[in-house]
Amino acid sequence: MILLKYIIKSFEWVLWQSRIxxxxxxxxxxxAAIALIFLGSLDIYHTCIYLxxxxxxxxxxxxxxxxxxxxxxxxxxxxMIATILLIxxxxxxxxxxxxxxxxEFDNRSGNILQVSSLNELKEKLLKVIHMVLxxxxxxxxxxxxxxxxxxxxxxxxxxxxxxxxxxxTSRK
Length: 172
Description:
This protein is mostly helical. It has one domain (2-170). It has helices at 2-17, 22-56, 61-96, 101-105, 118-143, 149-170. Helix 2 runs antiparallel to helix 3 (61-96). The radius of gyration is 23 Å and the shape is elongated.
């Protein structure tokens, strides 16, 4: 009986310590976020270089606008996905490993990085993913050819769905 209790106690200790493997998820998530922030910054940098180069060639501004907006939106998209990965990594760390003391004392981050349950983490991630999808829709809307009337109908339906989804997700 004593041996069985010792085995169970030992097994539970090993089981509890196995949560440390979650650190691989956290480190990977944070590393991916840093990489996406770098790529997004590089995208914005190349857009600025592109604009400077084309202004020197005296190209008309209207031809540069769509390309520039699409490139900037690509950068924003990468930043938003990096934000998702940061929130995910920090949230998983707080749920499985340990609470981060600095978050509680830092008023700048508000409560966006504090996670007390898996459902709360899912809600926070869903909000940011929702914003990524809106930015992605905006990027494709810029690429669309509006000479065809059906495309304008698709755009208006898409905007209607975005408005409805924002209304439904913001309602408690």
